[in-house]
Structures are given as structure tokens and as C-alpha cells.
Amino acid sequence: MNRREFVAAAASVGVLGTGAAVATDRIDLREPSDTATVEPIEIETLDGPGSTAGSMAVPEHGRVTLVSVFATWCRICEDSMPALGQVYDGYGDDVRFLSVSNEAIGGTVTRDDIVDWWERHDGRWPVGVDTDLALTAEFDVGTVPTTLVLGADNEVAWRSTGEKTVEELHSGIHGALGNP
What we know:
Blueprint: H1 3-23, E1 41-45, E2 54-58, E3 65-70, H2 75-91, E4 96-101, H3 111-120, E5 127-129, H4 134-138, E6 146-150, E7 156-161, H5 166-177
Parallel strand pairs: 3-4, 4-5
Antiparallel strand pairs: 1-2, 1-5, 3-6, 6-7
């Protein structure tokens, strides 16, 4: 193989690797969706660790909120729980956390199934269900997991899909809090 063929092959591998990373959501090239203020959406919350049955408005004006949309069948959602838990533990009341399943309740999954999954994966902040898919539609959630950080002004400050590291989650929250 001559030098020109080697350079062409190396460039092709780079392009293919970047394409695969984008396709599998390991790199998120999207900017936060438009900066219009989001009107609060009522999410049904479930009774489980760190969560009480009732409802929660998302977002809450004046407070930074992290929303994680997940599904109980999703392995990447399961793998994401330790990092989310570590970040949750680090922010206390400074940042509001909510994880939301957008699965169809009553078909193959019940509210109890979601609470069981939540307990098994060490969830300890509010968990809810998006039964009417209002949150899913508002934030154009097309894949799970999708993580959103909403600023105190009710605008999407950060959005990403796929499994996130503690550092990535901190970065998204810090931007919304106005920290470097």
C-alpha cells in the first residue's frame, strides 16, 4: 500500500467512525432546540424510592431541572442509572431531578413494573410516567435515554441522548447554572 492509499484509508476510517458515533448517539452534534420558553407539563409521579405518587410540573420556573427519559426495557437506560445517581447525590436541592418513562402503561408494562425497575436500579429521586406523551412531544424525544437540562428560565440548556458519564452530566448542569 502506498502513502496515498494509506491516507485515503485512514480518512475513510475516521469518517466511518464519526458517523457510527453520531448514529449511536456517542457524539451529539445537535444544539439545544430553540430557546423558546417551555410551558410546564404535568407528569404523573409514582410512589417509590425518592418519589411520591402525585404529579410534578416540568419545568419549574426559577429552578434548574434535569429530566431523564427512559424505558424499562432499555439496557443503556439501566447502565445510565449509576452516573445519574452520583450526580443527583452531588447536587442536593440545587437541581431538581426527574426520570420519566414514556412507555405505554397498561400494555406490557405497568406502573408497578416501573417502580420495581426503579428500586432494582437504585433510583432515589422522583420518577414518573408520561402517559399522554406530552413531555415526549414537547421535547421531541425520539430515543431513550434522552437527558435534558432545563434552565431556571424554562429553556432547554442542554440535551443529549445515550449513556452519559458523570462529567458529561455535570457539564450540562453547570452550563444551566451559569457555572464554567
